[in-house]
């Protein structure tokens, strides 16, 4: 059971268990991804600040560190997240298994999702990066718990990401699948509203947050704006039903 208190003071109760991944994923909004290249105070400090800001989903993304170092960092991140945020590992199923993370985020060229699912089990969260409707439908059919869609805008963070597909594409993907859509790529405080208005359930903004001087307050800024837009969207939908 979850108790929801809205900005206007309304209170509602919904059946569901926040520990169940499907239920949890219905409410994700801001998704934090580590980046040791841009980090100013180190990724562990960044994760701590993001969790303190209220971020509920953290991904450890590291491309060039030894497995030993990754297991060390992943163990620390898991401890920081504890019961406050779900902890996922990018690409590396072995690291996720080693530290008993709550899931993984995979790319199109990583381990096929069916095999990842067998290794991780039904309870773990598996996210898959998609670039178009075809990949999104396939991801859902193969058991992805959410899709990561991007790059929405041009990005300097991932060199091989290609050009931005534009926020309009989000609606097309959103209309073709039921699992949550997490938007990524070139998202900042100036364009994040268009991303949520275009139907994204959640967004990632690596450089905008990790590259800032204050990870906690930037994370809070994103969380607040996303929750505000979603609240207004819900209100608008409720209003429509009344008329
Ligand atoms: N996948 C697609 S774009 C991207 C990833 C990991 C990088 C996103 O970084 P930023 O700084 O939010 O553009
Ligand atoms: Mg990958």
Could you walk me through the main structural features you see in this protein, from its secondary elements to its overall organization?
The structure is a single chain. 42% of the residues lie in helices and 16% in strands. With 243 residues, it is α/β, with parallel strands linked by helices. It has one domain (28-242): TIM Barrel. The strands form 2 sheets. It has an 8-stranded parallel β-sheet with strand order 3-4-5-6-7-8-9-10. Strands 1-2 form a two-stranded antiparallel ribbon. Strand 5 (86-90), helix 4 and strand 6 form a beta-alpha-beta unit. Helix 2 (43-53) runs parallel beside helix 10 and helix 3 (67-81) crosses helix 4 (93-99). The chain is globular. The chain binds 4-methyl-5-hydroxyethylthiazole phosphate (TZP) and magnesium ion.
SSE topology:
Layout: E1 2-5, E2 11-14, H1 21-25, E3 31-33, H2 43-53, E4 57-60, H3 67-81, E5 86-90, H4 93-99, E6 103-106, H5 113-120, E7 125-130, H6 133-141, E8 146-149, H7 168-174, E9 181-183, H8 192-197, E10 202-203, H9 206-210, H10 215-242
Parallel strand pairs: 3-4, 4-5, 5-6, 6-7, 7-8, 8-9, 9-10
Antiparallel strand pairs: 1-2
Helix pairs in contact: 2-3, 2-10, 3-4
Magnesium ion is lined by residues 90-91, 107, 110.
């Amino acid at each position: 059971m979850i108790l929801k208190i809205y900005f206007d003071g309304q209170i509602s109760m919904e059946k569901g268990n926040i520990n169940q991944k499907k239920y949890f994923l219905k409410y994700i909004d801001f998704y934090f991804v580590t980046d040791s290249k841009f980090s100013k105070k180190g990724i562990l400090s960044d994760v701590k600040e993001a969790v303190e800001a209220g971020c509920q989903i953290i991904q450890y993304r590291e491309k060039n560190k030894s497995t030993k170092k990754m297991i060390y960092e992943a163990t620390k991140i898991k401890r920081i997240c504890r019961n406050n945020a779900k902890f996922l590992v990018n690409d590396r199923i072995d690291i996720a298994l080693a530290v008993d993370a709550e899931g993984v985020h995979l790319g199109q060229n990583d381990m096929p999702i069916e095999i990842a699912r067998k290794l991780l089990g039904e309870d773990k969260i598996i996210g898959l990066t998609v670039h178009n409707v075809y990949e999104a439908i396939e991801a859902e059919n193969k058991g992805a718990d959410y899709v990561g869609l991007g790059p929405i805008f041009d990005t300097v963070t991932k060199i091989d990401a290609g050009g931005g597909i534009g926020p309009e594409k989000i609606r097309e993907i959103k209309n073709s699948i039921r699992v949550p859509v997490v938007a990524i790529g070139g998202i900042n405080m100036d364009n994040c509203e268009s991303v949520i208005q275009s139907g994204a359930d959640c967004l990632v903004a690596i450089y905008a947050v990790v590259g800032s001087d204050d990870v906690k307050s930037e994370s809070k800024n994103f969380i607040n704006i996303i929750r505000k837009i979603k609240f207004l969207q819900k209100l608008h939908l409720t209003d429509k039903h009344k008329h």
